[in-house]
Amino acid sequence: MSATSTPTVIRSIAPATRRAPLLAAYAWLVFAFIYLPIIVLIVYSFNRDGVGGFPPRHLTLNWYRQLFGDGAIWTSVLNSLIVATCSVALSLTLGLLAALALDRASFPGKSLFRRLVLLPLILPGIITGLSLLMFAVYAGAHLSLLTVFLGHGTALISVATTELFAGLQKMDRAQEEASLDLGATPLQTFWRVTLPSLKLSLIAAGLLIFTLSMDEIAVTFFLIGRDNTLPLEIWGRLRRGITPEINAISTLIFAASVILIVIWFQLRTRAQRRTF
Amino acid sequence: MYSRAYKSIISLPPLLWVGLFLLLPYALMLAHSFWVVRDGFIVHQWNLQNYRTLATNPVYAEVLLRSMRIAASVTLCSLLLGYPLAYYLSFHAGARREILYQLVIVPLWVSYLVRGYAWKTILGSDGVLNGFLQYLHLTNAPVGFLLYSPFAVILMLTHIYTPFVFLPIYAALEHIPRPVVEASQDLGASPLKTFLRVILPLSLPGLLAGATFAFVLSLGDFLAPLLVGGASGTMIANIVQSLFGAAYDWPLGAAISVCILLITVTLLFLTERFEKRWSFR
Amino acid sequence: MSPAPAIPPLEEGRAAGPLLEVRAVAKRFDAHEVLKRISINVAAGEFITLLGESGSGKTTMLRLIAGFEQPSSGEIWMNGERLDTLPPYKRRVNTVFQQYALFPHLNVRDNVAYGLRVTNAPSNEIDTRVADALRMVKMDSFASARPVTLSGGQQQRVALARALVNRPLLLLLDEPLSALDANLRKEMQSELKSLQREVGITFLFVTHDQDEAMALSDRIALLRNGALEQIASPREIYSRPATAYTAQFIGQTNLLRAEIRSGIATCGALRWPTSAPDGMAFFSLRPEAIRLADAVVNSAANFAANSPAKEARFTAIVKQQLYGGASELLEVDCGGQTLRVKIPARGPLSGNQDFSFSAQDAVRVAE
């Protein structure tokens, strides 16, 4: 331990977790608030009599059966998958370069660049969506899945940049120096040393971008053409009327999300353990 | 260590892309706010008419204020829910902390639409909540105000943003070295005083980050009002949406967007300044 | 000569008896017993050190006294009143933490004033007491600085001032010097010692560094695996270690396993008179107690009961010689047994040499 090291996250040897019953009860209430609507949603996807009323009777798998026969939904799922996959590729590539640039290069307007890249994260989606719409119109482009893809890819660069920048900061710079010292060119060093050490960050970022793209509505709303993505397809249905079929697809989305987040979390904790 | 060629290769593509696909569109939005619509066409004549309209026409002011009230309510409620939760996890949950943390994160990954839809089905006149209340014979007729009101919008958005607010607060609390908390008690401060004098101040940057996030995104939300807001729950982003749609007045819509953008940037700037002054790491 | 101490020495005429009584305190974490029924009495005004390796339980003991842990069994009393049932913020005990734990969002002055403010000391008093405390640790020119700008040694002084300004009955120091480099450590040791003398507050110091413990303490309590091995003054614990562990932990020693018969202890080629009963026993013989023998002395006279010197002699081969400036540390082989010998510097040695030691320097130790 160096004499002037600033403490990082320090816990006592044996942290005494004291009892706080009121706080614990409150915390569990908050948990209930967060989960109750989702649980209701899942339960009612099995309800024969529709979305309302109480209690749910006559549990059935009808809605799921109806869902599986619904062609339009699955077409939109396919569209969403295509857009999401392409967005991951685009965002990761540009995000990686942006993270590297922020980490290693200095150029005029760097802080403006950094803020600009991160802006779509905090700015309400409608503003980014409308701006891109105007740009598309002025560029004479037709709205389609392509414009949606460009919108997602651009907006989600911020997610990739944040995650990869954090990964770069944790990386041991000396490894790259060692590689150069041993005779590798910068390109070889990048391919053999830098990228592998970012592997976990890349996968984690990719998962996150994929999920966000699959779920994206605000920006997509203004850039969509004839072909719907899944959220837009559901949105259209909602305008026409509510059926538990929507509950069914929502439940499936929830299940898929849970799987993805468990994977993401495992990767995250593995990445953290590796560096300490 | 890095050659100029290396630095150029990594900087130029993202710079160009971001310049073309972010900077240019935002600039275009800004430019439109200074133009006008005449006879159904956008005229590229630079003036401040849109801003004057916004400032003088009471309708826009009213909706903007309502939106800010809703956003503020969402932020406050999210903080009231998220902060104690983060505090409990960080200081009282012990070994279960990691699992509980994952449990809080999961809803973040669940589709926004899914969660909004869930509330819609719960709050409606034929919805689950009403059915539940009638089942318990607490009410005889459906309660109307639950759905299609600002209340519903606040409820839904609070549900969405509580985990968002939780995250930075939890991170900030975890970063407080435990010996510092012990030192406070060692010196004579009760747990309450320790919280007010040490824990809360040290968690303030995280709190502000979460609050800014929740406020700005609630302010600019147009989906929640469409799902559960009804006529009385319309927010400023819905007006923008219609101006870009049926009402066809892009310049005015752009002007409102610029206002939202300005509020966002100002809040970000203030929190960044605060964090710099408050930084002691 | 320093001015009147900023923290007035404790008043005369307080209750007789120990300041702190640890009564058969045990502490368990899940299945692991960290402290095993320890009893220690701390006298008012003394500088006592808890010494031990990591895992010996010394830090746990400190945390029990500070109030951050509860004993699994046993009691702690201070000045005739029960202490372990009080929360930490109600005890008249203050702690200097290992990593200093200064409040990062407060400057030095506010850090030091913290304890006075939260206990609602009169505000006119606070300013003077804080200024005096800072002057005492020589950090008065840093009053407006933020902890993050200070070096380790500076932070440590502030932590010290922050604790002492409250005039606690007992000051706990949790390895406060372990993060400092060697020179700074020596300097701070000497400052801590004179500070304690000056203010007269009881210091309970925790460390794993035995040199530090020896230099600073009035008494040392050596802990081993949660049990109290020995508690005595530094001189006593060094010259009369109670157990083999103590003898080896503090300073260097030769641990001799000897067979005793009729007042003579035999260990390999070594023989010396002893008053221990017949049987097997361990003896501790410090390297510096062994000398190079002078001219030949009649060996029979050595064992005479009235012989004043009671010297034991042996011959050994010098295997290794480490020069240490003022002394030499020799490793010698005596009939297959390796011994360490420390003698004043006198140039290279080799081959067979005669050594001797006083029988009384072979201290019988338990285990």
Looking at this protein, list some descriptive labels.
heterotrimer; A: 276 residues; mainly alpha; MetI-like fold; 74% helix; disordered N terminus; B: 281 residues; globular
CATH topology of chain B: MetI-like fold
Helix content of chain B: over 70%
Helical segment count of chain B: 12
Would you report the number of β strands of chain C?
A: 20
CATH classification, class level of the largest domain in chain C: Alpha Beta
The mean pLDDT of chain C is 88
State the shape of chain C. Answer: elongated
Q: State the distance separating the first and last CA atoms of chain B.
A: 28 Å
CATH topology of the largest domain in chain C: Rossmann fold
Spatial strand arrangement across the major sheet of chain C: 6-7-8-3-9-10
* Total number of domains of chain C: 2
Tell me about the biggest sheet of chain B?
A: 2 strands, antiparallel
Order of helices and strands of chain B: HEEHHHHHHHHHHH
Q: Based on the structure given, which CATH architecture of chain B is correct?
A: Orthogonal Bundle
Biggest sheet architecture of chain C:
6 strands, mixed
Low-confidence stretches of chain C: 1-14
Q: How would you state the average pLDDT of chain B, rounded?
A: 88
Structural class of the helix and strand makeup of chain C? alpha+beta
> Would you state the CATH class of chain B?
Mainly Alpha
Helical stretch tally of chain C? 9
